[in-house]
Amino acid sequence: MCYEFNLVIIIAYIREARAIFDLDRFEEIKDAPFITFRKHKILIVISGQGRLRAAAAVSFAKTLCEYKLIFWLNIGAAGHRSLSIGTVVQAGKIYDLETNRSWFPSTPFKKNIAAVEISTCANPTENYPKDVCYDMEASGFIELAQIDSIPEQLAVVKVITDNRSNPIRHQSINKLEMSMRKKKNTVTTLVADYMAHAAVIANSIKPIILPWWLRTIKFTVTQRNEVKHLINNYRVQSKEQRLPFLKISKTASTRDVLNQLRQEWSGGKT
Asked: How far is CA 235 from the centre of its chain?
């Protein structure tokens, strides 16, 4: 039995998404704060430019995947001092140039593409001061996506669209889109590989049965779903299938119990 999951793909621009995916085969979700497409387990959210918008898109996507295991993938364009235009890379490290914070997502494509450092900046860079990738969304994406996730649920793939020989100021939107489109087969293959990776992890999770000390509590259907979601997150993050016993007061309300479980199993997030 495979635990239900979604793959959420955050992309800055609709033209980047269309260069990689046949969006006509996806269902567009209407009246959403972000342009969003759905097909089976895959959600594609168009965030817009910048780390703040990427973070907001992640928060929105979480509302669409309630009580499901989420695997996160950020796809987009990036610049690099020396890598050739069209090179496809994955993030082994993400560094935010404004906050000096770092994150280390998984590198599930080790046999296919190189893992590099991605530095997220507030504005497009033309100097490429270090031999790393430069983008504008990765840090905002991962800062929000890593909450309630383990590194194996996080990945970032970038296509190099500019470098010192071909700086961003010389790249039209059509040229950037063409660089992405030329790598459509490569990137869609990586997406399929990541889906298989997600299925393996989801399949390792045992069916969720409430422990005996929670079965007598009269949760609503919504509350019971949240409890199961908390159990699943605990199992994925701790890599332990067996749940630790928690002492529940006999006078505690269902809301009190939920708050206690949130505190114990998701670091107090409510």
From this structure: 19
pLDDT digits (tens, 9 = 90+) for 233-253: 777 777 776 777 788 887 788
The answer on 65 and 25 residing in a single domain is yes
Q: What range defines the domain where residue 114 resides?
A: 5-203
Looking at residues 101-110, what average pLDDT do you find? 90
User: Taking a C-beta distance cutoff of 8 angstroms, is the pair 150, 236 a contact?
Assistant: yes
Q: How many domains does the chain have?
A: 2
Residue 260: HSE in the Cβ half-sphere, 13 Å Cα cutoff: 12
In a domain, 15, yes or no: yes
Higher-scoring residue by pLDDT: 46, 210: 46
Query: For residue 93, with 0-12 CB atoms within 10 Å meaning exposed, 13-18 middle and 19 or more buried, which class applies?
Result: middle
Are 40 and 172 contained in the same domain? yes
Residues 6+ apart with CB under 8 A from 267: none
Residues listed for the chain: 270
H or E segment to which residue 226 belongs: helix 221-238
Q: Same domain, yes or no, for 138 and 41?
A: yes
The distance of Cα 18 from the centroid of its chain, to the nearest Å, equals 19
Predicted confidence (pLDDT) per residue in 148-173, tens digit: 788 889 999 999 999 998 888 877 78
**Predicted TM-score (pTM) above 0.85:** no
